[in-house]
Request: fold
Amino acid sequence: MGKGLSRSQVFFMTLTCILVVGNMYYNQPLLGILAREFGVTESKVSLIPAFTLIGYALGILLLVPLGDMIERRKLIQGSMTMAGLLAIALPFSPTLGVFCAVSCVMGFFNVSQSVLIPFAANLAKPEERGKVVGIVLSGILIGSLMARTLAGFIAQYFGWKTVFIFAGSVSLILSVVSQFVLPQSQPMFKGTYKDLMASTTVRLLSLSAE
Reply:
């Protein structure tokens, strides 16, 4: 049973989703600039968002289930820290291939927003669960829509490298602040990672069968 979340905690979760999910989409309005930066065609530079989303999909598959096995606040902090550091590293990529590789790994770790949804659901009071999850989930939708506009604005006035430095810095700051805002949670799964993935696979198969 959830003990409930304060308004400030729900607000922080929602704000985190808005800002962190943007890491997945900041590169999209910058593809033309990045094509010129690396001296490649626009078709080749389109690999950047593709690799980012591939990494994100792998992260949802392999990292998010860990929220049942380890303390969720630590998982959120760890994923935001890694994603933030990798985002800051992106502007220093010497080639398109390196940029794509770093983007893929960044996407893999950029799953804190996907951990926050079940985290909020577990902590919310039963009578407030639907409302709280809806509010936090709206952060992902808002962030995905806002990211492109924000990236374009920052790139226009401060340069494209600043976009990723800003994104990474925000993730690192949120990781630190979460230590003081988010409550701790007790892991629900006591088995090994292999058992966890097997259990997750069974649940996915049962859902697809329905």
Q: What stands out?
A: The chain has a mean pLDDT of 91.
